[in-house]
Amino acid sequence: MSKIVAYAKKRIDRRDYVFKTRQLWIDAENIWFPCIGLYCKETNILVSCPGFERWYLKLTEAEAMASATLQKRSYNICSFLNFVLWNTACDSINGLTLNDIRDFIVDFKDNNGVSRDLQSWNRGIADVYNFLLRFYEYNKDILNFSYRPEELFTINVIKDSRTGRKSIIRNYNKFSVKAPAKYKKKNRLLVHGYLEFILFEAKKYDPMLVLGIALQAYAGLREGEVVNLTRQSIQQVYAGFGRVGKITIDLTKHAPFKKNGKTEFGSIKKLRMQEVYPDFIAEIQKCYEEHEELLTYLDAETAPDSPLFLNQWGKPLSVTSYCGRIRDLFREHFLPDLQKVCMENGTWAENASYIEAYQEEYPGAHMFRHWFTMYLVTQTDLSVEEIAKWRGDSSIESMMSYVHVNADMIALYKNSACRFQKSILEEIL
Asked: 6 near 48, Cβ under 8 Å?
């Protein structure tokens, strides 16, 4: 299992071969899993199945990840293996030296002649280091290694001053390699007023999306988590006088209607019971009740395990369709109507920069989870650890990175520079 190359004894040219991934359906786990194979470049024939996929991710972990995420991880591992295959004389993972690993980090900055962005570079290094860590942990008792995990990354323990709780942050060793230029971060900014406008447009043009958008913006759910919800996933707890005091979203298991792997229904990144942040309980309750009325009108299935979101044929809504319909709503209705209202109101100057940014680049359905995060960061006194809990993060690492990358934007929000957009609703609604 440690071999990079396993050929016949005759002399071969390692550059005639390439590591590639192939998606295989695993019935026991109900997922598509990318497996790594060694192929002949000339014939594209599989010549070896070294089993490297077992080292980059456990099957039990893979079930909680979207197939696209799994694919990205496998591509990064293949990039690493091909570098070792073509640029070193090493024929085993355990024989890799720190110099070999550093050379890969330098080489990985280039992506087929184009400079790789900072985020992709960091993510790729993390994937490779985790691969090397797993390989080491499973084989350290039977193989001699030229690298040690502690040489690849350091572990820092951060203590929250308010709660006293500790969190572990992993810092990856880049061996003093200069990082690529900072990537152009995707515009996910959805300022105050725009969210309400989008919800208004969704009620008008595509009401099936309203609750999904609300769950992302008011509860921080990911797109894949939204389409995994069933009729029994949202639980309301009453606090007296008919008032809903708490709403809990059951994300402890994947949807039972995930079929044969041909359709991407999305995934739950972290299995959990997710509470709705108290500030948004009333909004979620209203959207949920209206959604139930919509499903009743459509004569949808009422069994507890039936899907909460349906496509136009009454079947479970896939994550691809969900994101596509939000994109269409944004481009075909929200953006044109926003421009029209701003021109009629004389508020074009204040909104022009945002409109132009949206015209240049669609922010993606993740903009609603971004809105939720920005609200928690700028409008509450929650600690980073508490925000990570409300976001459904498995650790605070992503939140620490988020705060760092979006520091300027956060300052803008805190100075209330974007709140004027609320005024557009008076003309729209």
From this structure: yes
pLDDT along the chain (429 residues), means of 10: 50 86 72 83 89 70 61 88 92 92 92 78 90 91 92 77 67 85 65 88 97 96 93 87 85 74 64 93 95 96 94 91 95 92 81 83 90 87 86 75 60 50 43
User: Whole-angstrom Cα distance, residue 110 to residue 21?
Assistant: 20
Cross-strand partners of 34: 23
Dihedral in degrees, nearest 10, Cα atoms 348, 365, 179, 128:
180
CATH, residue 360? 1.10.443.10
Amino acid, res. 384: V
* Domain containing residue 333: 194-428
The 3-state DSSP class for residue 92 equals strand
In the block, tokens 């995930």 appear at: 258
pLDDT at 183: 53
Helix, strand, coil share of the chain (percent; to 5): 50, 15, 35
E strand segments, 50-91 = none
What does pTM read for this prediction?
A: 0.67
Question: Phi/psi of residue 218, each to 5°?
Answer: -105, -10
Place of tokens 């976001």: 391
CB atoms within 10 A of CB 101: 22
Cα–Cα distances (Å) from 146 to 93, 99, 149, in that order, read 9, 10, 10
Same-domain pairing of 155 and 225:
no
Q: Is residue 181 part of a domain?
A: no
